[in-house]
Amino acid sequence: MSEKNRRVLTGTHFMLGNYAVVEGALAAGCDFYAGYPITPANEISERMAERMPEVGGKFLQGEDELCSVYAITGASLAGAKAMTATASAGYNYMQEGIEYAVAGEIPCVIVDVQRCRGENFATQADVMQARWGAAGDHEMIVLAPSSVQELFDHTVRAFNLAEKYRTPVVVLSETTIALMREKLVIPEPGALEIFNRKTPDQPPGKFVPFKAGPDGVPPLPRFGEGYRILHSINPHDEWGGIQWDPDVFENLYDRILGKISKHRDDIVQTEGYFLDDAKIVLIAYGSESRPALGAVREARANGIKAGLLKLVTVWPVPDKEIRVAAEKAETVMAVEMNVGRYAYEIERLCCGACRVVRVTKNRGLVHTTKEVYQAIEEVIR
Amino acid sequence: MKVYPLQKYLRSGILPHFYCAGCGTGQVLNFFVRAADELKLDFDKIVGIGGVGCTARIPVFMNVEALHGIHGRTLPWAMGIKLHNPELKVVIFAGDGDAASIGGNHLIHACRRNLDVTMIVVNNLTFGMTGGQVAPTTPKFVVSTTTPYGNPEQPFDLCKVAIAAGATFVSRWNTSRATQAIRAIKKALQHKGFSLVEIICQCPTQFGRSAIGSGDPIKLLDWIEECSITMEEASKLPEQEVSNKFVLGNFVEKEEPVFEGSSVYRNMEEQ
Fold it and tell me: Of A101, A114, A245, A345, which residue is least crowded by CB atoms under 10 Å?
């Protein structure tokens, strides 16, 4: 097989962030992609258009973002591992389909390359929309990569979590990393942990389509296997029948939301740097964790007891980890590239335990290490 | 106990349906299962898709794989399903709101691409489930709950749009012409490519009462018949006499390559 037609491009690369997303998706088993042109996510669609036919998958350029997001849910129910990618303005449109994927429990991956309103400068301003954008009560899994390598790794993990919990998963990319070229190491296919959705162990007629075991996740057959399931966004009982019954509604959403909240420890990932004795704890996610780590290293070199809590999973919120950091620290610094969005969560979780200082930058540019270090100096002054 | 022979195609325990007395949407469900029965379709391989509204409930009643509950996105779902597994028979049941209003752009592009699915549009000329608001298909000057002084807008001709956009099977009938409607649905289901069957349907509760001043379904069926004309009859009349009529007939039936995705592998060096 030629280099081009391989699904997993094992080896060391110098690769564009948007391309790393594509290779991560392919390595995870993605065989359906739909997207609509939007900068700075275009390289994802362009590489998918080339790669999907090579590996026997399907590529669709939708007539709009709504088409893309619904096409991936349709393909997923037909048995595909499906993904779409967009940028902030396009991500708005997709909220409708995300609500459906949550309520319909349809595994799929959505990549949002965050950009400044109408312009392609760097930002993290969609961090709240990624959690709350869709209508109705829901939980969201949102991963925030900070490098080209993490774009690959987190895209693989996004597919695994989507399949495991039958839910949409968002990869919250940023202009900064999407359009950056960096070293990327892609492992052997066998070295990657790949999770595929559970399928029924009962034949049609016996299988109860929306009945789950203790994990809350019902098995999902693909269309055409004789199960004849009704997938409706309307409140439905365990057989899928539409029911206007308060108990049915409450039980259904307890289960759908519980799938995520009860597995919070499996989903939430953070990384700690110099936290053991840190009096000043920086909390950052995505590309902002890079200048934050640089500033912490500089502080340590100057004898300042600073540490970094890097949030790999931004939603569900890593509440335990943030609280532990707050209890040990005198000051927590919420570092992000917007007017201070995730800071609300950090302030809520640290309330009463320590002081919270916001370190924000909302001018289309990532913080420099120097800027974050200066913010640390101001705290100790 | 005798069981209606087509009941095997419906989900068990799903009847009675929730349509108003005299509504034609149940008739269209009947038309479809008759057509599918005559064609001996494998119901394990049918995916029925509904959006939101009265028509969208048709696949809820059918014993098939079914999707329901999002307004206007039936065709994007169908696109994902059909591209991933072309062996599935995808049938969409859309109201005129789903097809002509919120999902209009999707319709144009499904026609253009010749996506190999069947779309049955039940056109009741109004937004029925939400209470009789004006639809893009509501005839001019008709009173609705949001056009209390009469509809000032030109109605949307779904079949003309589908033909212009490149649909390869386009047909329109009404509920009182059951034989022709069933025949058209059969043809559509056998057609390779995008097939659209529009069925003008009576909504006595929300359309009849405000549009013709009567909730009597017979009167509304008579009114629809009076407004209907076959394409053969229409071809003999001047255009302005046809413009406010429901022209019935099988307008287009042609073969074209079907959609297989936006990027299909070809070895460029062998070109």
Answer: A245
